[in-house]
Amino acid sequence: MITTARCRRGFLMLCCAAAVLAVPAALHAPALGKSTGGDPPPPDAWLAWDDGSTIYLSNGPESGVLVSERKVYNGNCTWSADGREIAFYRDDPVHGWGIYATAADGGGGIRPITPLMHVWATYYRPDWSKSVTPTGTEMILFSDIPPGEGNTQIYAVRPDGTGKIRLTFDELYWSNPVWSPDGSRFAADGQGEVRICDVGLVGGQLAILAQRPITGIPGGLPSGHGQDWSHGGGWIVLLSEGYIHRVNVNDPTDIVQLFGPAPYNMDPPHFTPDDSKIVFGMFVRPSRALYTIDTYDGSNLTPLGPKKQSYARLAVKH
Questions:
Q1: What pLDDT score was predicted for residue 221?
Q2: Domain 2-316 adopts which CATH fold?
Q3: Which end of the chain lies in a sparser environment, N or C, as judged by fewer CB atoms within 10 Å?
Q4: Helix (H, G, I), strand (E, B), or coil: what is residue 279?
Q5: Residue ranges per domain, the chain?
Q6: What global pTM score does this model have?
Q7: Beta carbons within 8 Å of 220's beta carbon, 6+ residues apart
Q8: Looking at the predicted structure, is the pLDDT value of residue 11 above 70?
Q9: Which residues contact 250 (CB under 8 A, 6 or more apart)?
Q10: CA nearest neighbour of 159 among 141, 180, 184, 185
């Protein structure tokens, strides 16, 4: 499983023109313009996804376009804590690769938050905290590769682009971090294991205080698949070898298989806003679509609507 993840990373690296991207340091320029096409997002949207250039918002049966630009990468979304903004990775023509944000109602422009040091980082979804963290502010977690190093590490930054700090310092490939609802912990893929990390202040700076892996997932955990933390705080849902599992955060041995097997490239699962359902995407002939299942036992597989892209990471409103 780790070998597969490394091969994928190696392929991405060959596709990059340089190992480290030089990004302008100016982070607080005026809002950038954006072009949109198609129907606007529904006002009650709670789900976001992308196809690599276009970001869609949906309330389940209805979908609309938030950002759409030809030849510009826009992807891997996360909702702000208040649901008013969407943050995402973007290869901006002016500012380069970085994390950007725009209003979820489709109004306004696109503002830069922080640059990325390496294009690999865009393969993994960032996560905007659902509440204030030990810093006293909201923080966005994301993966990036430090200069001179080869592994993705976890960073945090305030939504206004200030206070960027590195949180992991080891040889693991860290990816897909997701905050707990109270901002005191996060879960992340630590090279084939989901690790729960407690955070706090050390010397006035956000830092990991302790971490522990979730073990016992049948088939292990392929690196880079992603996970989601329930809005109520008690569960993590993750994808492993085509199966969806629900894990009790306080008792990681309490693991329930909810669904599977499904195609390898199905979208990582997420809890719906009220935690009653799990939403994910998969291909069922003749098209790819979004589906939900019951969180408790995985029953009631229900289609939400079609998806045109072959694969996308989802983001659910807090």
A1: 59
A2: Neuraminidase (2.120.10)
A3: N
A4: strand
A5: 2-316
A6: 0.86
A7: 1, 192, 240, 241
A8: no
A9: 234
A10: 141
